[in-house]
Amino acid sequence: MLLDIRNLITRFSTPEGEVRAVNDVSLQVESGQCVGVVGESGSGKTQVFISVMGLLAKNGRAEGEVYFDGSQILGMKTIELNSLRGVEFSMIFQDPMTSLNPYLRISKQMTEVLVEHRGITEKQAAGKSIEMLDLVGIPDAKKRFRMYPHEFSGGMRQRAMIAMALLCEPKLLIADEPTTALDVTVQAQILELIAGLGKELNMATVLITHDLGVIAGLSDRVAVMYGGRVVEEASVNELFKKPQHPYSRGLLDSMPRLDNSSERALHAIAGQPPDLQALPKGCSFEPRCDYAMERCRDEMPELREAGEKRMKSCHLEKMP
Ligand code: SF4
To answer: pLDDT value at position 266?
Structure first.
């Protein structure tokens, strides 16, 4: 197993009290696999991977176990993590400027990483960087290599950020809503690019998104998160065919479908996500769930097996 997250808990101390952002999440990613992590904003999906990367804000703390390629990385010293981040695993964000320095030419930013982590010469690093810009579909890569990030369009900046994240050929790429700010056509191109590069380079990819639609056809497996927990995990095909958790069903129902196979009417999930400072004793989806029973209010449903290679956290035996 390449990435093995076990019982991860992430808390933030705030003046208003403790925010329980991630509540006992376990998730595995195999080499070369593409896993989608889906949920509304505030579901904890980003904080799981911020914790994994050791990039939590100062008021945050993470507990549990995270193994990368067999080594425990949660709580590792910054100096040790720095030798892995961007080299063994990389994370890209919605805003490319989180990763790109606006005051430095792309050439400087890319070659520096390679010279430092791979111990190659400036010239070799330049050659490899241009190759990578080419691979992510930046036209005239040799010329653009010398430019500043502000001279790139939004889509090109996103591609440059992906090229930077891939420079050291990491075993794992985590992409957090990398396309939300882009127009729909560019979004599709970038996601296909990430998933395609994953297969080409045998790199595992995690696509974090609020939109179930964007991972259809790209991911192998999907984990649906709600209230800081994984509430369903399955292969993408199984999840789309027959969701086993009412929240996953709600996400699918709120997604426009191109085919006519679904007779369900398109509707958004009513209600608000739970308050992470005051999570209920029972199921956190209960106030929004059409299938809620008395038991749901008092008893937290454990994540349990729900068929071959699928898990769900719901008291319902079967979705009606
Ligand atoms: Fe709905 Fe109950 Fe299942 Fe929660 S446990 S999703 S409230 S049926």
So the answer is: 56
**Centre of ligand 1 from the C-alpha of residue 291, in Å:** 6
What integer is the mean pLDDT of 307-314? 94
How many helices (H) and strands (E) the chain has is answered by 11, 12
Mutation to probe ligand 1, out of 299, 316, 318 (largest number of atoms < 8 A from CB): 316
Beta strands in the chain (DSSP E): 3-14, 17-29, 34-38, 60-68, 71-72, 89-92, 172-176, 204-209, 221-226, 229-235, 304-305, 311-312
Query: Could you tell me how many residues make up the chain?
Result: 320
Name the 3-class secondary structure at 6.
strand
Dist. CA 25–CA 17, nearest whole Å: 22
Q: How far, in Å, is the centroid of ligand 1 from the Cα of 300?
A: 9
pLDDT value, residue 127: 96
User: Tokens 């502000």 — which residue?
Assistant: 150
DSSP structure class, residue 268:
P
**What is the percent of the chain with per-residue pLDDT over 90, rounded to a whole number?**
70
Q: Edge-to-edge, what's the strand order for the sheet holding 71-72?
A: 17-29, 3-14, 60-68, 71-72
pLDDT of 49 strictly over 50 = yes
Q: Which band of pLDDT confidence, cut at 50, 70 and 90, is reported for residue 263?
A: very low
Residue with tokens 């799981």: 48
pLDDT of residue 262: 47
Q: Identify whether the C-beta of residue 224 lies closer than 8 Å to the C-beta of residue 297.
A: no
Q: Is the pLDDT of residue 8 over 60?
A: yes
DSSP letters, 198-250, are HHHTT-EEEEEES-HHHHTTT-SEEEEEETTEEEEEEEHHHHHH---SHHHHH
* CA distances to 135, 232, 241, 289, 297 from 302, in Å: 44, 11, 23, 17, 14
DSSP structural state of residue 307: S
Mean pLDDT of 7-24: 96
Beta-strand relationship, 229-235 and 221-226 = antiparallel
